[in-house]
Amino acid sequence: MQLSTTKMKAEARDGVGWIIFNQPEKRNAVSVEMWAAVPQIMAYYDADPEVRCVVLKGAGEQAFIAGADISEFGEKRNSPEATKHYDAVSAEAHRALALSPKPTIAMINGFCIGGGVAVALSTDIRIAADNGRFAVPAARLGLGYGAGGLKRLIDVVGPAFAKEIFFTARQFDAAEALAMGLVNRVVPAAELESYVLDYARRIAENAPLTIRAAKMTIDELLKDAERRDLAACEAAISQCFASADYAEGRTAFMEKRKPRFRGV
Known about the structure:
Elements: E1 8-13, E2 16-21, H1 32-47, E3 53-58, E4 63-65, H2 73-76, H3 80-98, E5 104-108, E6 111-113, H4 115-121, E7 125-129, E8 133-135, H5 138-141, H6 147-157, H7 159-168, E9 172-173, H8 174-180, E10 185-187, H9 192-205, H10 208-221, H11 230-241, H12 244-254
Parallel strand pairs: 2-3, 3-5, 4-6, 5-7, 6-8, 7-10
Antiparallel strand pairs: 1-2, 8-9
Helix pairs in contact: 1-3, 6-7, 10-11
């Protein structure tokens, strides 16, 4: 895939698509061009049947994402119009991650600050190294934070922890993040990539139609009742039972072998 920036990388192998935030000299702080590349990468992966799971990581050893690239704010967020454009570009990146029908994993090493937390919250599963450091320092920068981002945080950690994270603006270690429910797992830093790769490959081997239906249904149930599209969920579930993969799963179980799912 040809990207317009070298600050983002996309690599797909063995059923796993990787998105790499590649600005290690700034601890992978996200610039506008990096935000803009995320929907492009996700559209490519969403359309590729060989990609069954997507993993996000930061380049280098110091950080997943240490926030937005604040050095751009003087130019990119210096007026209401510029701020509106910047927010639209970053919001589209978050939407592309959150609305993907494919499961996504944030592989969090080191600093996960501000916009890094927002990116992680847009994924389905968050696995952190034991050296992880988390914070949303908006209150130290005078920034207003959008309702959409706050809703994602509340959905994951609940209102009490969301208030603590925002009111204190302090850094939380990986153990605290795990206790809050901000991350699913914490593993030794030296084992992080192998652990996440094993998780991603395990997901990639499972029935993609089942995973898609489950993700859709969970996401719909998180919405207010009047906004839920339960008919779409039922259609996705029915598709599973009508699929060749369902027949393959039953056959493989009876033959005591690993199933070979094709997503059809």
